[in-house]
Write a structure and sequence with these properties.
Elements: H1 4-29, H2 41-44, H3 61-75, H4 79-87, H5 100-116, H6 120-132, H7 138-154, H8 158-171, H9 177-189, H10 193-209, H11 216-228, H12 232-245, H13 249-261, H14 265-277, H15 284-296, H16 300-312, H17 320-332, H18 336-350, H19 353-365, H20 369-382, H21 388-401, H22 405-418, H23 423-446
């Protein structure tokens, strides 16, 4: 699960900016003389729940006009000019000239301009200044708290994200699933996975309650935290949901990997086979793994076909290792006719005695006894045959079928000496061939030959 942390971090940043824009713009554009900028939560609270009323002072007409002018300039992207208008308030040095709500809206507008210029450090400070004011609409306070949490996330101050969100949760009447996800992401960045997991589950529970669909990135965040805690059964369960609801190549492969980790070999095979059936296995390593799984689960012909197609498409290298795997698959599938050219190529490339012995075995299955003897003898000269005794048994049988009894007896005698596992069979062949050779000698003698 490489690069997961970076992916989560990037996703969080995108979410942060999107939510930032949502909260900043309504707070500024909701200015009206009649309402005196009262309670912007009407635009922020999508569930239409009422915020508690809080008595706030009105914005005076002359201040409202200047804010309106600053807004016009900002909307025209004339940020320097808009800032000049706000600077004329001199809200720092002339603080006492303005009431709490007026100061809050001046700082709120500064924050909007800083955010528009992506100066998030200055925007954060401006929003913190908004929160210092006491007599402001509760909706403005709640919305600003949420935005402050977003800005802390952008600055990677995750402790502040969590503490600010806790205050926000204590004041809001209508949290949304994304608010819990922000908490979970902050805990993830701090590697506090035990704290982060319940936050994702809260988001999911709230989404179900509201009839909203589950988001893919929620499952991804939950998956990576369980993975970091080595909770593989939970990772598997999440991946099973992902392949069902968001079927992607990487999820099928990760699911197969989890099944392997949990020793669920049949399920691993099933997941890989499903991925292959959907054309999701593209890389050489994936195709080779699938071929090996077919071999392991005693369906070698399917593995062989994957290897053959992969080599034809030049996705799988036609090297010694892969040729050996293809030859093994073909031989296990009893496709000796097809296995012979592959084995011959692999033996030539590798110059290994073992492969020449296997080539001899395939020739034997096709009753090509001369080729069988030649291949085995080449392998014996090269050395490296895993079971030299078995090679001599096979060579002896080929020689017998060629009616070369004396060399056959010599091969069986050598096998009996090499390994006790072949001693009994070798001696039986020696006894049989010795009698057969004597019978033939007597027959020739009786015929006067």
């Amino acid at each position: 699960m490489q690069n997961t942390q970076q992916a989560v971090s990037n996703a969080a940043r995108v979410l942060s900016l999107a939510m930032l824009c949502f909260f900043v713009i309504p707070l500024v554009t909701s200015v009206t003389m009649e309402a005196g900028l009262s309670d912007a939560s009407a635009q922020q609270d999508k569930d239409k729940k009422k915020q508690k009323t809080r008595k706030v002072p009105a914005i005076r007409a002359n201040i409202f006009k200047k804010l309106e002018k600053a807004q016009e300039l900002a909307e025209a992207k004339q940020f320097a000019e808009a800032t000049e208008v706000l600077d004329s308030f001199d809200v720092v040095n002339r603080r006492d000239r303005y009431n709490d709500f007026e100061r809050a809206q001046i700082w709120n507008f500064y924050a909007f301009i800083y955010s528009s210029k992506e100066d998030y450090k200055s925007a954060l400070q401006a929003y913190l200044n908004v929160l210092k004011e006491k007599q402001i609409p509760e909706g403005l306070e709640v919305g600003t708290l949420f935005t402050v949490a977003q800005l802390y996330f952008i600055q990677e101050n995750y402790r502040k994200v969590i503490s600010t969100m806790k205050v926000w949760f204590s004041k809001t009447q209508s949290p949304n699933p994304n608010s819990y996800i922000i908490m979970a992401q902050a805990y993830y960045q701090l590697k506090e996975y035990r704290n982060g997991i319940p936050e994702v589950k809260k988001a999911m529970a709230l989404a179900r309650e509201k009839g909203r669909p589950m988001k893919e990135n929620w499952y991804l965040l939950l998956r990576v935290m369980h993975y970091e805690l080595n909770e593989y059964p939970q990772v598997r369960d999440i991946l099973e949901i992902l392949v069902r609801d968001f079927p992607k190549r990487e999820y099928w492969l990760q699911l197969a990997g989890m099944y392997a980790e949990l020793k669920q070999e049949k399920k691993q095979f099933g997941a890989m086979e499903a991925a292959h059936a959907q054309g999701l296995l593209k890389r050489e390593s994936e195709l080779l793994n699938m071929a090996q799984l077919y071999l392991y689960h005693e369906t070698p012909i399917k593995g062989a076909r994957i290897l053959q197609k992969g080599m034809k498409d030049e996705v799988i290298k036609r090297d010694k290792k892969n040729l050996k795997l293809l030859a093994q698959s073909l031989r296990m599938a009893q496709e000796h006719e097809d296995a012979i050219p592959v084995l011959a190529e692999a033996a030539k490339v590798s110059n290994e005695g073992e492969l020449y012995f296997q080539l001899g075995q395939s020739y034997f299955e096709l009753d090509k006894y001369n080729d069988c003897v030649d291949s085995i003898e080449t392998g014996q000269k090269l050395g490296g045959i895993k079971r030299p005794d078995t090679a001599n048994i096979m060579k002896g049988m080929c020689l017998f079928n060629l009616d070369r009894l004396s060399p056959a007896i010599a091969a069986f005698r050598e096998a009996a000496k090499q390994d006790k596992r072949s001693r009994k069979m070798g001696n039986r062949w020696i006894s049989f061939l010795t009698k057969e050779r004597e019978r033939r000698r007597q027959l020739r003698q009786s015929l006067g030959q």
